[in-house]
Every structure is written in C-alpha cells, then in structure tokens.
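Hi,

Apologies if this is the wrong queue. I'm a grad student, and the batch job for Ribonuclease BN (tRNA processing enzyme) from Labedaea rhizosphaerae produced an output file that my downstream script rejects. I'm not sure whether the problem is my script or the file. Here is the sequence I used:
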Amino acid sequence: MLLTVLGCSGSVPGPGTAASGYLLEAEGFTLGIELGTGTLAQLQLDRDPFAFDALLFSHLHPDHCADFSPLTVLRRYHPERPAGRLPVYAPAEAPSRFVAAYSPDAQDRAVTDLSDAYAFTALGPRTVHIGPFAVTADRAAHPCEAFAFRITHDGTTLTYTGDTGWSDAVTALARDADVLLSEASWTHADDRPPDLHLSGTEAGRLASVAGVGRLLITHVTPWTPVDDVLTEAKAEFAGEITRVRPREAYRL
Ligand SMILES: [Zn+2]
Ligand SMILES: [Zn+2]
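Support response: The file is valid. Your script probably expects a header line. Output copied below for reference.
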C-alpha cells in the first residue's frame, strides 16, 4: 500500500496546509480517505481531480469532509468528468449532510440528492471490502458519529484513528498493525477535554499498547508545538515515529 498525504493539519487548515485528507493506493485502486478543507487544491497539484476510485470518511466534521461539495461540482460539470457514480463509504448522515452543504435551497434539495454522482454506503462496526482493501470500522470516541479504521491489503495492516479520544475500540483496531496513522491534536495538558482528541502521549501509548510496528502522527493543530507532541509520543513508544507531511508518500 502507498499512503499519500493531501493534508494533515488538525481541526482546521494551517498556513499552506490542508486539513485531513489521504490517498491509499494498491493494485491500481485509489481510495480517498477524508476530504477536508483544502485537500482538493492539494490533490490537483499532482493529480487528476478524479483520481479517486472510492471515498471513505471517518466522520463529518468540516476538517474531514468540507471539500466534498467542490468535488460534486467537478463530477457534475467538468468537461472531462468520468461517467458513473463514485462509491462513498461514510456515516449514515452523509447523504443528507452533503446535499445540505451543496445546495442551500430546499426545493433544489428535493431534486438534488447527489445520487447521480455518488453511491453511498453507511458505515457501521463491521468490515467492508473496498476495491482491494478490507476495511474494518469501529466507533471512535468523538462528539459525533465517528469511526476509526483497520485497513488490510495483502498481509499488511494500516490502522487510522480518525478523530478520537482514548478508546478501547480504537486500541483493538490497532492491535499488531504494521502502521498506525494516529491523530495527536494537542499536548497532554491537564485541562484537555475528554472523548475528543488524543495527545502526543496518548498516540504514543496507543502505539505501544497495541504493539504496532510504526507510528505516523497526523492532525496536530496549527497552534500546537509539533515538537512537543513528538517528544510526548517518543516517551511512550520505542518504535519509529514520523510526523506526516503534505504531498509526501509513505510505503506501507
Ligand atoms: Zn479533525
Ligand atoms: Zn472531528
């Protein structure tokens, strides 16, 4: 599997950096994971805007899905748009939320349900097969319906936390994974809210407790010192730790 980062800025886009978005590729299939603010602009620096064979969303906060509306414009009106409906795997609310974001007019929404451009599948705590990937979802600890994923291809496993606070379900998804792509939004301050995000300490602890091979850190907010997050993670996890960067690719 090849993981390419479109954006990795936590909770909001940062200076010159998109919010969450990734491409996961294998066997010529490209799975887009999240489409946060600014990710479509990043994508088009290197690729066709129709590079995706399917999309997967952990949850529906704007920093993970705000660029869905501009993708709809591309898929409806671009002169070289592909035919057919793009498969989208997302929380059950996605079709109604995405159409509301796309069209502010209620009458228009009655006829604009996006089913011309997309085929939606609601996620749940189960395994779905998306192209060459087996994707097992389970619920994350976050204020809305949110999932983390364990994605396997050809004997290699990537676990992606999405947005989550400390969670036994997410820890189970990460068990013995080759690579853990973990959010670490902030440092381990005493006043951080529960069930929202992981600190650097918790991301490192998750990697250690789950026994993963390698830790990729993402979703650090622009106002958090990233070196402090990495120092926290290193104190908990002895394996390789990398802070991911936009437009970089990681062979898994
Ligand atoms: Zn987020
Ligand atoms: Zn979120």
